[in-house]
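Weekly puzzle thread! Below is a chain. First person to post its structure in token form gets bragging rights.
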Amino acid sequence: MDILRYPIGSFTVVLEPTEEQRKQFIESIDGLTDKLRQAVDGLSLGQLNTPYRQGGWTLQQVVHHLADAEMNAYFRFKRGLTEEHPIAGTFREELWAELDDYKYTPIESSIVLLEALHIRFVSLISRLKPSDFKRVVTSPTYGDMTLDEAVQRFSWHARHHIAQITALRDQMGW
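Winning reply:
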């Protein structure tokens, strides 16, 4: 596995998480924005425009991608709670990353968006019944997944990208 691409390893689902494990996933989501802020703190625009690996996105693109991906995940989750076995939408993330908002919008806008999104998401999922997490959505990318898996993917995805940022900082001595 490419350690630069997957610094925390690839995603592995916990098939039958305990209530304590589920609580830990939710708590990790609650603290992600603070970790992202720490990861990008003090970086110059030149540093933000550095790819985290050869052929990879710039740090700025990674931050904007996190906001877009997590908004999509939030909507997928809400559809899973309100519809029977919905087909979840997806987006062409590689094309979105090339749009001008990724290049010219300050990352603070995406961090603020993530802060608000995480408040809403944590508020929603921390009050669900265990049976709610068994509901299923169909992802064009991953196939059928329970909301238990969706929460885990949500948590992993942000930690994964934050680790890409911090790994580059460490590598470059920033």
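Puzzle host: Confirmed. Bonus trivia for everyone else. Residues 19-39+58-172 form a domain with the Four Helix Bundle (Hemerythrin (Met), subunit A) fold (CATH 1.20.120.450).
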